[in-house]
Structure formats: structure tokens, C-alpha cells
Write a structure and sequence with these properties.
The chain has 311 residues and is of the alpha/beta class. It is built from 14 helices and five strands.
């Protein structure tokens, strides 16, 4: 909400949004048995994947644009407020252990700062200027991508982030759950997943939040696939930072190579624990340093390195 807006203006604006629509048929949902409410909610959630499916071409185009820039060293930055901002922070925080991304390679910024992840920071979402300041702290370049996330598609913080990033030459994506949104209009790639009115009027942490989570999963996961962070459907860049992930690393090497446990352990030792390198050691029959060099020349793409090694 800008300084020129009034409560009456904002109420009128919200009444035009699909995500804010009131559903009279659910006006007595609180009087239903718990199981019936659960069935209603589950049915609502089941409609979300179909809504996302209608926008797969736009999502794929956005992924290809992101991957092209990240291959040149660019970053993926999510910007949003409230639930949308938290989903961005969540997706970003899961990339290092899953794909071994570098610190700062995938970033989530949220209106109100880190404390807003767990506590509501009143008024922060209403400031486009705050979004600009948060992005300036990252020193954006044209190789970076900023994804504005907002269920309503009107949140000043998200819209401001996209507008600011675009002025700086960064790639921009606007993800919302209303048609004809200001957010999508401001971005080069607009993705508007309209999931309809919520079970609880205006509670966009429900279907809208689920839709945003699904799209963010696609943006990050498929980008990482394009960047060579996987081998088939195996997470070969996983960062083994705990016992569970170390066990997963051994299993991934075994699945990719068919080697026995002893050979897997030897390869991982030779590769200093790097899963992708260990797979190359086994499949190309090379030592650790040679595998590392091959992967470096292939920009981390295991299939390319295997081809160059004649494996």
C-alpha cells in the first residue's frame, strides 16, 4: 500500500482478488464434523497441481532463462513477504545441502528481514523501497535472477523488488495466484497460478501457498538439473554434512555405478567425499585428481565428463 492509498482503497482492491473471494457455501464450515472439514480441505488441495500444470510452458521458459544466467555465475534470489517470503527463504535454504550450491548462490529475502521468517513484521510488506534496499545489499548484476513471490500479486515489497531488479538489468520473474497482477506485469516472466478462493477467506497460506511451493520447487530443482547438479534422478552434488547424508552419498554412488560397498568407500575416499567425483572415479576408472579435473573442464556436468573420459 502506497502513501496515497486509504483503507477504503485497499479494501476495494482486495475485493477484486480471486484469492480474497468469500465462499458462501462454506459459511458454516465450523459446524461440520472434523472429518468432513478434513475432506473438504483435502479436496481443495487436490485442485492445485492442475492449476500449476496449466502454466508449465511459462515455468519451463523461466527455468531456462534462470539456468542460462546461473551457468555464467549468476544468483537466484527470491523476494516476498509473509508466507510467500518464507517459502522463498525455505527453498533457498534447502539448495546447499541438496545441490551443494555455494553460499549466496540461491538467496531468499523477506520483508522485515530474517526475524520475519518466524515473526510477523507489521508494515514491512507495504514498502517497495525496503525491497530495493534489500536487493542493493546483494549488489545485483545482469546475470542474477529475482523472483518476486506474492499470492495477491499486488504486495508492494514483491512488486518493488521486481521493478528494482529489472532496472538493474537482472532477469525478473513474478509468481502470483491472481490473474492480471501487477507483479506479473512488472516481470519479464509472469507466472499466475490461479487456484481460486481459499477454504478460509483470504488465507493464502493454503492453496496459494501450496501452488507457490510447487512452482518454487520446479524453479530451483529443474534449474539445478540443467546445471548438472544431478545424474539422472540422483542428487550427485549432495553435501554430506551429517550421518544420514553420508549414508545417502554411499547409496547414490552405489546406485549410479553398481559397485559394491568396499569399492564405493574407496572411491569416496579417493574423491574426498565428493559423490560426483567418486562416480567418475568408478565409471571412468581414473584417480581422484583426474576425475576432479574432468569435472572442472565439463563445468560440473557428470555426463559430459564421462563422455570426455570415454566411459
Amino acid at each position: 500500500m502506497t502513501s496515497a492509498s486509504t483503507p477504503r482503497d485497499l479494501r476495494a482492491e482486495l475485493e477484486t482478488l480471486t484469492t480474497e473471494a468469500f465462499r458462501p457455501e462454506l459459511a458454516e464450515i465450523d459446524r461440520l464434523p472434523t472429518l468432513d472439514i478434513a475432506r473438504l480441505m483435502n479436496g481443495e488441495d487436490g485442485s492445485v497441481p492442475a492449476a500449476v500444470a496449466r502454466h508449465l510452458p511459462e515455468i519451463a521458459a523461466a527455468v531456462d532463462a534462470v539456468a542460462e544466467r546461473m551457468a555464467r555465475g549468476g544468483r537466484l534470489v527470491y523476494a516476498g513477504a509473509g508466507t510467500a517470503g518464507r517459502l522463498g527463504v525455505l527453498d533457498a535454504s534447502e539448495c546447499p545441502p541438496t545441490f551443494n550450491t555455494e553460499p549466496g548462490q540461491v538467496v531468499g529475502v523477506i520483508a522485515g528481514g530474517p526475524q520475519a521468517v518466524v515473526t510477523s513484521v507489521e508494515g514491512a510488506e507495504d514498502s517497495a523501497e525496503l525491497a530495493g534496499a534489500d536487493l542493493d545489499a546483494l549488489a545485483l548484476t545482469p546475470d542474477d535472477t529475482v523472483v518476486g513471490v506474492s499470492a495477491s500479486g499486488r504486495t508492494p515489497y514483491a512488486v518493488g523488488a521486481v521493478e528494482h531488479a529489472r532496472r538493474l538489468g537482472a532477469l525478473t520473474i513474478g509468481l502470483s495466484c491472481n490473474a492480471d497482477s501487477a507483479l506479473a506485469a512488472a516481470a519479464e516472466h509472469g507466472i499466475e497460478v490461479v487456484v481460486g478462493p481459499e477454504l478460509l477467506t483470504g488465507s493464502t497460506r493454503l492453496k496459494a501457498g501450496t501452488a507457490q511451493k510447487l512452482v518454487l520447487n520446479m524453479l530451483s530443482t529443474i534449474t539445478m538439473i540443467r546445471l548438472g547438479k544431478t545424474y539422472g534422478n540422483l542428487m550427485v552434488d549432495v553435501r554430506a554434512s551429517n550421518e544420514k547424508l553420508r549414508a545417502r552419498s554411499r547409496r547414490i554412488v552405489a546406485l549410479a555405478t553398481g559397485a559394491d560397498d568396499a569399492a564405493v568407500e574407496r572411491a569416496l575416499t579417493e574423491a574426498d567425499g565428493e559423490v560426483k567425483t567418486a562416480i567418475l572415479v568408478l565409471l571412468a576408472d581414473v584417480d581422484g585428481p583426474t576425475a576432479t579435473d574432468l569435472l572442472s573442464a565439463a563445468q560440473g556436468h557428470l555426463r559430459v565428463a564421462l563422455r570426455e573420459a570415454g566411459a
